[in-house]
Amino acid sequence: xxxxxxxxxxxxLDFDQKLKSNKILRVPGAYNPLTAxxxxxxxxxxxxxxxxxxxxxxxFPDIGLTTLQDVSTRSYLISRVTNLPTIVDIDTGFxxxxxxxxxxxxxxxxxDAKSVEGxxxxxxxxKAYIDAGAEIIFPExxxxxxxxxxxxxxxSGYLLANMTxxxxxxxxxxxxxxNFGYNIVIYPVTSQRLAMKNVxxxxxxxYANGHQNNIIDKMQTRKRLYELVDYEKYNSLDEKIxxxxxxxxx
Length: 250
Known about the structure:
This protein has 250 residues and is of the alpha/beta class. The relative contact order is 0.12. It has helices at 8-19, 33-42, 51-57, 68-79, 97-103, 114-117, 119-131, 145-154, 174-180, 190-209, 222-228, and strands at 25-28, 47-49, 86-88, 108-111, 136-139, 158-162, 184-187. The mean pLDDT is 92. It folds into two domains: 8-189, Phosphoenolpyruvate-binding domains (TIM Barrel), CATH 3.20.20; 193-236, no CATH class. It is 44% helix and 11% strand. The chain has a five-stranded parallel sheet, with helices on one face. The protein has a two-stranded parallel ribbon with strand order 2-3. Helix 9 links the parallel strand 6 and strand 7.
């Protein structure tokens, strides 16, 4: 089902191999499974599931209202439709480190301490995470080249850069981050922001004008949607039942 060739174990192996390649991994956020399919089709290296994005998509603020079950269910639904590895934001562990570790596998340790204690104290915390076994470090709220370079100089192991819009960090090109020595760059909220802005603009236009003729060119076509969800591939399951075609659809 879903025409995904790789088992979760193979995806994890792929992620390990990609990290060892010395090329930065580009990882957009997917707020739903369909977005994950698009991320894979375009050629990105992995999919990111943001806890904040998931909470917002459920209509909640990101203040700890979601549960481990919420996150694991949404992550499963997203990861099962793609051959790419999936990185999942598990917040602070949902009060059960054992259950969380059994649900998710490779640990990425994040520190938000810079804005409270400063860069040096944050680096100390990150070193403690590495000593405790974290393989990837996620230093949050780094601001400029000097911050990124200092963290790389002080820390061993893999580093993740967060290129979220409207935050404290300068939005670097991924090649610049690669030159700083970072191994992963995430764009956690980008796809949701793009989608919601377009949806809001479109709905307001329809409300004001009474029709959608002005915004048809801003919509994904039916044919493109059918391509993305692999309609025609389902014919291979049983041609007596399935006879889908994108022919004739715009």
